[in-house]
Amino acid sequence: MIEKNHPSLSIGAQCRLLSVSRSSFCYAPQGETEMNLALTRLIDEQSLETPFYGVRQMTWHLQNEGHPVNLKRIRRLMRHMRLMPICQKPNTSKPAKGHKTYTYLLGGLRVERPNQVWCTDITYLPMRRGFLYLVAIMDWCTRKVLAWRISNTLEADFCVETLNEAVHRFGPPEIMNTDQGSQFMSFVWTDRLKRIGTRISMDGKGRCLDKIFIERLWRSLKYECVYLHAWETGSQAKSGVGRWITFYNHQRPHAAHGGQPPAVVYFNQIETGQQGQKVA
């Protein structure tokens, strides 16, 4: 899809037109050993089954399965994968200097219309000879995936690009809810939200249950798509994830909506809201 020697378009311009992260196009296998890549796959699968496992429990589990691992290795791999147990951590570590922590705004809030609350998260995508990261923005009310990007780094830029796409297509949300990951506490992310008039909400430290809807999305994506393939390149991963998200939005029945797909519910509610405003 991308021509390195295009006469008029640079590689960066072509990536923007195709909604591909520049870093994803330049994807190269990371320097992890075959054993570590196999372990990350096992950790990723197990975390979906037992999201309450911390580093120690995950290490014990893998040792019980016959894998010669130690706490240091599993801690590094889980940190690299952005995995954390759902229970509250006992320490009270402070955010990095210059990073502000925002209050969780969804406690007791009735979310009953599209674009009232969006949520976002990053997940790990195993490849045959490496790994990538996927960020997605979801509408909290209808569960529709509004925008997504794949990257081979955890820099904040690909998250902001995803936010810009979602805002361009659907308008800004009233509230954006995230975890306290460095990407979502960065100035470029929070400043962008402030400039579009969106209130910022952040989950409690180490509380993945606060983002339960997008965690369920990751579970479905991985069992129904990611784990069924062994992608070699970033473009293969982008194509496969794109097909599944289109299926999820427009065809896959969703239990929260009585079997209706998220995109159908999203656009029906948008249309109903617009008609109600005209009547009023």
Name of the CATH homologous superfamily of the largest domain: Ribonuclease H-like superfamily/Ribonuclease H
Tell me which CATH architecture of the largest domain applies here.
2-Layer Sandwich
What is the third-level CATH name, the topology of the largest domain?
A: Nucleotidyltransferase, domain 5
Determine the strand fraction and express it as a percent band.
Answer: 5-15%
| Cα-based radius of gyration, to the nearest Å | 19 Å
Low-pLDDT stretches: 87-96
Order of helices and strands: HHHHHEEEHEHHEHHH
- Rounded mean pLDDT is 84
> Largest beta sheet, briefly?
5 strands, mixed
Q: Distance between termini?
A: 49 Å
Number of strands: 5
User: If helices are DSSP runs of H or I spanning 4 or more residues, what is the number of helices?
Assistant: 11
Plain-language structure description:
- The protein is of the alpha/beta class.
- The model is unreliable at 87-96 (pLDDT under 50).
- It has eleven helices and five strands, in the order H-H-H-H-H-E-E-E-H-E-H-H-E-H-H-H.
- It has two domains: 31-85; 117-275, Nucleotidyltransferase, domain 5, CATH 3.30.420.10.
A few lines on this structure:
The protein is an alpha/beta fold.
What secondary-structure arrangement, pairings included, does this model have?
Blueprint: H1 11-17, H2 22-25, H3 34-49, H4 55-64, H5 71-80, E1 117-126, E2 131-139, E3 145-151, H6 157-170, E4 175-178, H7 182-185, H8 187-195, E5 199-202, H9 212-224, H10 234-250, H11 262-279
Parallel strand pairs: 1-4, 4-5
Antiparallel strand pairs: 1-2, 2-3
